[in-house]
Amino acid sequence: MARYLTIRSEEADLKVDLGEGPTAEEIWDRLPFKGPANLWGDEIYFEIPVSVGPEDEARETVEVGDVCYWPQGEALCLFFGPTPASTDEKPKAASPVTVVGRISEGLENVGRIAPGENLKVEKAAE
Length: 126
Known about the structure:
Elements: E1 3-8, E2 13-18, H1 22-30, E3 33-36, E4 38-39, E5 43-47, E6 59-61, E7 66-70, E8 75-79, E9 92-105, E10 118-124
Antiparallel strand pairs: 1-2, 1-10, 2-9, 3-10, 4-5, 5-8, 6-9, 7-8, 7-9
């Protein structure tokens, strides 16, 4: 069954298609939550109330639009372009992340989110 999240800030409303797996389940079970945005290159990340290790498929290089869980920082990450760790146009995390979903609406607005801006994450209807 498809599950969706909304991530809202003052400047952006994002819709995320949440994937499957234990980390995605844990995130779904903890909703709603909020946290202040941090910026690292073209990545927004913020702490969330989830504490799990990396899944077997965890990796550093991801795709633009991927939503990932970063175990080392207990954070949700929104990738919208290269990061300081990138060697090309692909986003690269600071350390392995678990891909938990994809931004399906609003990707063009992620760059408008300012550091320190509060992000609210909640369950969304289809």
